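Worked example (supplementary).
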Amino acid sequence: MRRVSKTLAAAALGALLLFSTAAWAHHSFAAEYDADKPAKIQGTVKKVEWINPHSWITIDVKTANGTIETWEIEAGAPNAMFRRGFNKDSLPVGTEIVVTGYLAKNGLHRVNGRDLTFPDGRKLFMATSNPFEKEEK
Amino acid sequence: MSRGFFGGFGALLPAIALVVSAQMPVAAQQAGTFKVSRTAWGDPDLQGVYTFATLTPFQRPAAQAGKDALTEQEQKELEEQLKKKQAENIATNEHFSYNALWFASDEGRPTGRTSIIIDPEDGRLPPMTERAQKLRAEMQARTAAKRIGKDQLVDTWEDISFYNRCLSRPMPRVTQEYNQGAQILQTPGYVTIFYESMHDVRTIPLDGRPHLDSSVRQWNGDARGHWEGDILVVDWTNFTDKQKSDGAAPFGGLPQGNMHVIERFRKANANTLDYIVTVEDPTVWTRPFTFYLPWRGDDPTYRGPDDLFEYACHEGNYRMMENSITAAKAVRAQAEKK
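After joint prediction of all chains, the assembly is encoded as:
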């Protein structure tokens, strides 16, 4: 009995994950970014734009020769991020972050942000899933 | 027990009554005993802020063929698995494009069923008509013609769907990754539904007036409502062929001009609004289909109207267009060099 429901759950899960990938919209990843060009960059937060359908995080990156390059990171929908626990205090200007993602095909300094961490490896805003939790209790 | 949920609906939709088994979502089971409150003018009161986020797939996965509902235990296990999988997804970062960190849909709950579609009985969309198959094949051919290697090219804004351009989103709303909020407001003679995504508003008259002339076509169609007991029944027509989804379920790429939708809203309990929708379009589907999607009124991130954020999607979407078109130019330049 138990095994059956586990199989079922696993099957449902597979289908769900497939589904959510396929239905992602407002943003044609394949048109804009190159899945064969993963990127990992580190820099300090310069600006966070809370705009639909996707937020943007601008960071300053120090290059090997000491110059500063500005990079733009495409992030999630503002309210999706907010409901996940991300708020205006999560990434103050000057915060150092590491971004992994994929490079834009047009060669501009743009990355589709897949993951954000602090330089010591800690993940950002993973622990808080509900921004209203404190208030509710 | 099945009468608990579809008791009222069953009489109206015999097909659905047949589909429904003894295993029903908890909210649905309570519907039989729940007494909906009334507005000051005596209509059933459906008002509130809801979310229709769910983790239940629109169509039933093949692995679950023959099984339409989950037991409470299975539902619990599924929710646990999904939570775990989501944490893993963020931790391991092995997800194409965005990982789960950016999605709001995991805040949704499974409906207790194995698919949102409840009719046909197999939980799958019915077969498309020959016309629809031809249209879809043409659409796929157009897409294929805009591909160089693995690159899908966007040479002009017209290569991007209305939805991806933040202009309009197909109705009825059923599967979304975020912005699944909605608010229902009632006044004497009208029900208004506000959707967070695209900040669309539908004002539905209840006075029995006829539909707009069939020559008038609207992106969000033309809706007329009436009460059948405690159920709000909405007849929805006059959609436009301009409206096409961009390939996502359920209406992927198919024109909506001949679509006829019947929606049924019923308060199942204090926190749940049952939403049952039948879609028919004999020029696209070989038979009608019906889906069930509970709207939840107790989600802590949708407490009230202030939690329905202003969308301003088109305004914010400028980089998508720039990125897509300049990417296509770069890919074409690269291809010419070779």
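Two points are worth noting when inspecting this output. Confidence is low (pLDDT under 50) at residues 1-25, 126-137 of chain A. The two ends of chain A are 37 Å apart (CA to CA).
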